UniProtKB/TrEMBL annotation, chains A, B:
Pfam families: GrpE (PF01025)
Places the protein is found: Cytoplasm
Recorded family membership: Belongs to the GrpE family.
Disordered as annotated region, ranges: 1-33
CDD domains reported for this sequence: GrpE (cd00446)
Protein purpose: Participates actively in the response to hyperosmotic and heat shock by preventing the aggregation of stress-denatured proteins, in association with DnaK and GrpE. It is the nucleotide exchange factor for DnaK and may function as a thermosensor. Unfolded proteins bind initially to DnaJ; upon interaction with the DnaJ-bound protein, DnaK hydrolyzes its bound ATP, resulting in the formation of a stable complex. GrpE releases ADP from DnaK; ATP binding to DnaK triggers the release of the substrate protein, thus completing the reaction cycle.
HAMAP family per record: GrpE (MF_01151)
Keywords of the record: Chaperone, Cytoplasm, Stress response
Complex and partners: Homodimer.
One Gene Ontology cellular component: cytoplasm
Name by which UniProt lists this protein: Protein GrpE
């Protein structure tokens, strides 16, 4: 908007110069012409600078747009995957307590297959579960909900995972909820 | 790139004009000055036009970018949801044949709950299953894999659904695979 107004002002200015240049050619003295040459030179230079600035702004905007689109593309499904994490959590929990009777065998197998298929789609999208147990506690990846005594581990080590943490490509999508040795 | 070169050429031109204007002020005749005034006026006008064009291009690019980003945002999860459709298909099929024994009751309930939770996440994202049976066949929404005789329906009506079709917001994400009365 502002730029457009500039361009219009520019147009008016030039009309004025043209009128001066064409209006009374014989009557203008050398001094007057000299002044016009100087004014027009300044005017021309100003436009040239505005043009260069406008093009530089355009270039920067274009570059920023490309970067933003790449970023958008890379994490396009980030929100949806976040919302699917509770489904994955429940799926994993349900399969931990699947029945073992003969009547339910093929159903359980079917559900296990769907679970794997589901995980593979998300894996292909760049989702990975964090390895936590035995790792040093790191607030970037872990959310400590409790400190516990441990004979096995020294202080500040993740000893139990209460909820899985996930990375989407190189970003933490959800930190792992863990217990830490204290 | 091209624009940048323009701006550099512009700079050189102006330097030349400045040299002319400042170089030999006393020696220049009125005719020579008049010529310079005309040349500078033309030069100035050209820059003004290039500036207006550059700003108009920038404006158009900015508007297009906004539209493209809106589109990207609206259908950001389209690819992932497409890939999840086979998971949904299998989920639905598995639940059609869930066992009824007492030992598996709570497991089946759990899986049903996960299925609903999964569907609700996708529903919130804008995914809807098409209603097909009894509808006139429409190649925009339906993929006819077979024509069958029907006493119940007149010709060209969807009589059976072999695979669910889905819309994401206002776009067909996957057409329904159907049998049509012939």
């Amino acid at each position: 908007m502002e730029d457009h107004q500039d361009a219009q002002t520019a147009e008016n200015d030039t009309e004025e110069f043209k009128a001066q240049a064409a209006g009374e050619p014989a009557a203008a003295s050398a001094d007057e012409l000299q002044e016009r040459v100087q004014a027009l030179t300044a005017q021309s230079e100003e436009y040239m600078q505005r043009l260069a600035r406008s093009q530089a702004d355009f270039d920067n905007f274009r570059k920023r747009t490309i970067r933003e689109k790449e970023e958008l593309g890379k994490y396009a499904s980030s929100k949806l995957i976040s919302e699917l994490l509770p489904v994955i959590d429940n799926f994993g929990r349900a399969l931990e307590t699947s029945p073992e009777g003969e009547g339910s065998e093929s159903f359980v197998k079917g559900v296990q297959m769907i679970h794997r298929q589901f995980e593979n789609v998300l894996l292909a999208e760049g989702l990975t579960a964090m390895e936590t147990i035995g790792q040093p506690f790191n607030p970037e990846f872990h959310q400590a909900v409790m400190t516990v005594e441990s004979d096995e581990y020294e202080e500040g080590i993740v000893v139990e995972e209460l909820q899985k943490g996930y990375l989407l490509k190189d970003k933490v999508l959800r930190p792992a909820m863990v217990k830490v040795s204290g």
